[in-house]
Amino acid sequence: MIKKTTAVARLSVAVGAAALVAPMISFVASGSASATAIHAPASFPRSETLYTSGTAYSPPTNFNPLDTGSRYTGTVGLLYEPLFLYNPINNKYIPWLASSGTWSGSTYTIQVRNGVKWSNGAPLTGADVAFTIGLAKSNPAVGYSSLAKFIKGVSASGNTVTVSFTNPPPYTDWQDFLWQDPIVPQSVFSKLSSSEQVTSANLTTGKTPVATGPMLLVSTSQSQACFADNPNWWGIKQLGLKFHFKYLCDVVNGSNSVELSSLLSNNIDWSNNFLPGINTLMTTGGDSSFLTTYYPKSPYMLSANTVWLEMNTTKAPFNNVNFRKAVAYGINTQSIVSGVYDGIVKAANPTGLLPNLSSYINKSVVSKYGFRYDPSLAKKYLAKSGYRGTTVTLEVPNGWTDWMAADTIISQDLNAIGIKVNAITPSANEKTQHMINGNFDMMLDNNAQADATPWSYFDRVYQLPIQKNDGAELNVERFSDPATWALVQKAATTPTTDTSALNSIYGQIETNFLQKMPEVPLWYNGAWFQGNTTYWKNYPSSTTPNNQYTPVMWGTWLGAMTTVYALANLRPAK
Questions:
Q1: Is residue 466 within 8 Å of residue 478, measured between CB atoms?
Q2: Is 245 exposed, middle or buried (CB count within 10 Å of its CB: 0-12, 13-18, 19+)?
Q3: Domain spanning 25-56+206-297+528-572 has what CATH number?
Q4: N or C: which end of the chain has fewer CB within 10 A?
Q5: Spatial distance between the Cα atoms of 516 and 480, rounded to a whole number of angstroms
Q6: Helices and strands (DSSP H and E) totals, the chain
């Protein structure tokens, strides 16, 4: 059961972020003659436009919802939508394109929401949903094709969709599909080849993609993609959600300094970039009083994913559990939290599970087996490991300045307990290739994103069999533990509502994880968010009970979590 998530956006090379209002391609609504024509204006009125940034590093050229690696910001969330949303803040699901979904034995029934229309005026039907689900079996390249071997059949009768599974069903993987994967129009995607379904740009001059979401694509340029409100969006009438901006333009990322300058000069309203020093700006007040973050003080950001230290367990000394424990006890993560990030991230729980999954963390297990910074104990484990002073490498991608700084601290900490570490910084592509082919000693990694259950985390740690070339980036450390892998598979086929059984299974997995330490959780990367209140106010905030939504435009958040609610809550500042 393999489901690869899209990596969280990070800052890298500088890309021009000026030219905020120069469209290159304009679009009109496509489809039926009754569709409202929407033309991009020559310039986007500043008081009617929300400018976002922090998700994209290249010009917008792909709006294919099934292309999880290349689709541009807003493809899912603004254009295409899933059946449910997930709120990681309160760990609840929200019916979206589906009005309900229920299990009966090994059959799942979806009631597709009535009154939803595609942007060409045609109704969303159960046939569209059944077609999208059926792609799991007909097209191995779609991101949810792991469901294929479990789906026995899918049918639609009006707006009722019935999916029959093998017994036991893949409860967790299916639950992930319901909120992570968008529904596509059968009338469009059935005419494409299997390859085109996942690789076509879904971008035609003169036409906006046929979708159900709250916005329509109206222009693209080298520096941005711009959307206009969809006046016929179903959420306006059925949920009372309405955007109070007319346009949203997402700007291609620049360097740290460019992005910060754009935010401070009012050219960007909503930033999802990592901006070093934002905590200083938040605490100085005065000229920066127009800035806002999700938390008003440290850590300022929601937690987005876990940064792990991966060790290649196929070779010495990393194949020795005592060496791995020496590494775990030898790193002062708090120095990274305070010294590199100035308190805008949090140290990870020893299990690596994000705060939204705290109910799954067995506190007694963590108390008994969890690690902490303890150089003396680290040296004892190192002595027991038989380590003989071999120099090992620790790599992070060149240009990831925060990780490079963390790399230095980790190397110093491990050298202090007697492990000879050489910090190296290959390019991001080289580092990824090392991860895929197993040609590394140690590296930092954060490829498991926020999820609704611990399953995807442990799936990536224990996935078997070990692949020679691990393109899916599962079991990066290449650790063989069939007994724990069996528990992960058991969790996958346990009903998500059976919390007692799941807590027992995950408690056993956490015990095995902390005793064998296949990899080391270090800190939680933040869901970077900075808002400028000059033009727009009511950004998501932990201090406002009715506005605690995800303030993130990243692909795995905007379309799947509650960012659409956050956008609808924005109001003009003046």
A1: yes
A2: buried
A3: 3.40.190.10
A4: C
A5: 11
A6: 18, 22
Segments making up each domain of the chain, as ranges: 25-56+206-297+528-572, 84-189, 302-526
> Which residues are CB-neighbours of 418 under 8 A, at least 6 positions away?
379, 382, 387, 389
How much of the chain is helix, strand and coil, in % rounded to 5? Answer: 30, 20, 50
> Are 529 and 205 contacting, i.e. CB atoms less than 8 angstroms apart?
no
What backbone phi and psi angles, to 5 degrees, belong to 279? -65, -35
Q: Give the number of C-alpha atoms closer than 13 A to the C-alpha of residue 133, restricted to the C-beta side.
A: 30
| DSSP-derived secondary structure letter, 47 | G
Q: What is the pTM of this model?
A: 0.90
For domain 84-189, give the CATH superfamily.
Answer: Dipeptide-binding Protein; Domain 1 (3.90.76.10)
Same CATH topology for 25-56+206-297+528-572 and 84-189: the answer is no
DSSP H helical ranges for 223-374: 234-239, 256-264, 278-284, 321-330, 333-339, 363-369
* Enclosing H/E stretch for 219: strand 215-220
Go through the chain and tell me how many residues it has. 574
Give residue-wise pLDDT tens across range 76-128.
999 999 999 999 998 999 999 999 999 999 999 999 999 999 999 999 999 99
DSSP 349-410: PTT---GGGGGG--HHHHHHH-----HHHHHHHHHHHT-----EEEE--TT-HHHHHHHHHH
Q: CA-to-CA distance for 178 and 156, rounded, in angstroms?
A: 16
Task: Give the model's pLDDT for residue 6.
Answer: 35
The answer to whether 406 touches 396, Cβ cutoff 8 Å, is yes
Alpha carbon distance, N-terminus to C-terminus of the chain: 50
Peptide bond into 375 cis (omega under 30): no
Sign, CA dihedral 419-424-428-431, equals negative
At residue 208 the predicted structure's pLDDT band, cuts being 50, 70 and 90, is confident
Distance CA 45, CA 20 (A): 11
CA–CA separation, 40 vs 29, rounded Å?
11
Q: What is the pLDDT of residues 422-464, one digit of tens each?
A: 999 999 899 999 999 999 999 999 988 889 999 999 999 999 9
d(CA 45, CA 49): 6
Q: Which of 231-240, 365-374, 385-394, 396-405 has the lowest average pLDDT? A: 396-405
Of 324, 323, 314, 347, nearest to 518 by C-alpha is 324
CATH architecture of 302-526: Roll (3.10)
